[in-house]
Design a protein that fits this description.
- The chain has helices at 4-24, 38-52, 63-91, 100-110, 112-140, 146-166, 168-182, 204-211, 258-269, 288-297, 324-337, 362-383, 385-392, 413-423, 431-437, 481-506, 515-544, 560-569, 575-584, 597-608, 617-621, 624-627, 641-660; strands spanning 193-197, 229-235, 238-244, 273-279, 307-312, 467-468, 471-472.
- The protein contains 23 helices and seven strands.
- It has a five-stranded mixed beta sheet with strand order 2-3-1-4-5, with helices on both faces. Strands 6-7 form a two-stranded antiparallel sheet.
- Mean pLDDT is 78; it is low at 1-25, 340-347 and 596-612.
- The chain has 692 residues and is mostly helical.
Length: 692
Amino acid sequence: PDSPGHAHGRGCRARASATHATHDMQYNFKKIATVPTATDFIDVVLSRTQRQTPTVVHAGYAITRIRQFYMRKVKYTQTSWNEKLSRILEDFPRVDDVHPFYSDLLNVLYDKDHYKLALGQLNTARNMIDKIAKDYVKLLKYGDSLYRCKQLKRAALGRMCTIMKKHAASLAYLEQVRQHMSRLPSIDPNTRSILVCGYPNVGKSSFMNKVTRADVEVQPYAFTTKSIYVGHTDYKYLRWQVLDTPGILDRPLDERNTIEMQSITALAHLRAVVLYIVDISEQCGFTIAQQATLFHSIKPLFANKPLVVAVNKIDVRKLEDLSAEDRSLIDGMREAMRGPASMQLGDDDALPTMSTLSETGVMEVKNRCCDLLLAHRVEQKLAGRRAGEVMNRLHVAMPVPRDSKKRPAFVPSTLEESRARKAAGEKITTEKDLQEQNGGAGVYSADLRKRYLLDDDDWKYDIMPEIYNGKNVADFIDPEIEAKLAELEREEDELEAQWEAERMDRAPMEEELDDDEKALLGEVRARRNKLVAEHRRKKAAGNNNPVVPRKVDAQRKLNTKSMKAGLESMGLDATAAVERARSRSASRRVVKRGRSTGDVSMNDGDAGGDEKKMRTSKSRSKSVARRVKDVPEPGAGFASKDAKMRAIKMADKAQRKRNKLAKAGEGDRSIQTAMPKHLFSGKRGNGKTDRR
């Protein structure tokens, strides 16, 4: 086992690594998951348990199976509570582990004690739910019946839900904290920052809008800015963070409100250059004396930080117009700006002045703040222990001339000519100017050949030879090809004109038709119209009307009269055909119905002798009078009565499957039940929802 010294060493290393991770951490409070209310929390967990665990159990099951069924439900519910509560506890930052700036900011905004108490209550609830699940699983192992196991499960889940209902206030408080934290700006406490502070309405937000891409609300009344705003700017290829803090009033610390305490927290914990803005015009509602008093009251917060005091609104009142008393107060604030000699940048006595309305001096103030912070950071690094170690490994090599020969820089002659022309006042035409003069972008094509470096400038616009299969294409081009082509086109035009003139001369005149030809033409056209009409009628009937038997004649044309006329028109004698057709036509037979089936059976027996009577479903359902018609008629396609009965039985057998499916036939597409109960009831498993 490890000794106490070893254990202490491990603890120190763990704390050091945690501190290092804290300083390197980037805080993103927008990723904190939503905290549900107690009622929603209970509904989510219980519905998830119902969906993800089995739901059917019977008293006839083995007791071990029943116990496992309910133990699984209790364990699954406990796991769901544990996962969700752990996620909430891990997402919210711990006050003791975050940067001191965020720690104090959380204390100012949400009350650190209340915040820690809410998280502690959820942690206690998680531990109690785990203990309840453990106890009831132990009891379920000894359940002796389905009813006993079910009641134990019900009691376990009920106690879990009761615990969460008791913490409804903590959940609601944490949800409000999460919503507010998600709106906090993402501030990096360790990056290069400019912290703007001062009385309300002195021009802090206007300065930030000018130097960054932020858009902070600016209004002519105090406390327009109620929270810390963050903007970013660039200086010397570095990204800078500009913080706009709410206004501060000159009063004791314990009397300051939440809005002012945010500024105090930023001044106390952020390593940044402090820009204190003074309103020289006193339009903010506070005199220069009050602003100087506030400056000296919060001066302890500026310790170990570079400080810049800037005078704003010089467009309303000049620095020279101040009274001797006000000038002495500003000089007193300027004396506080003096830092170590290593941080003094040139004329340190010059007080930076600006006007955010006309943007006069705004960039100079920003540049001075950035230079001062860079110098301060370099001084801190040099004062550290690592600077000496790094300097010992560095060697700065200084170039030494190898001889006395001068080697001046080479300047191209074209550049010298261009400089001379520009100095003489000549306007140099650029490619962009040429583009605008010649149609603009998309129309103008830059001349790339004028920059060619050739021995002779006359060669720049020579036609370059085109080589195909090792031969110059220009060698095979007739120089008179265009003239010959024009001659051919002219000859073709003449030939076409001549042919048109001859065609008009030789075109024969058509003779008029005589009476016989006109009559014949009329018959042909009538026959053609009749065929077209017949075809259209048949097409319409075939597409829209059901199929009808062949013996149905819609226009009553299929008769002996039309047959006789057609045969005689062909020169044939139709007498025999007409007589034969009339002899085979079926006359109406009147079949009298007997008094009872017995009479018909006797007649059938007499007619058929000892033939066996075949029974079918249709024959039983038919009346006696219709049963007599079961004898196949000539031309019906049946050789005998038995063949007809067999065909009827085969049809009955084929229809039997349709009858089971409640279908009238093969063409029946009706759906009796649109939503079958076996598909739209019961528990849905995973992956089934999209099919409903």
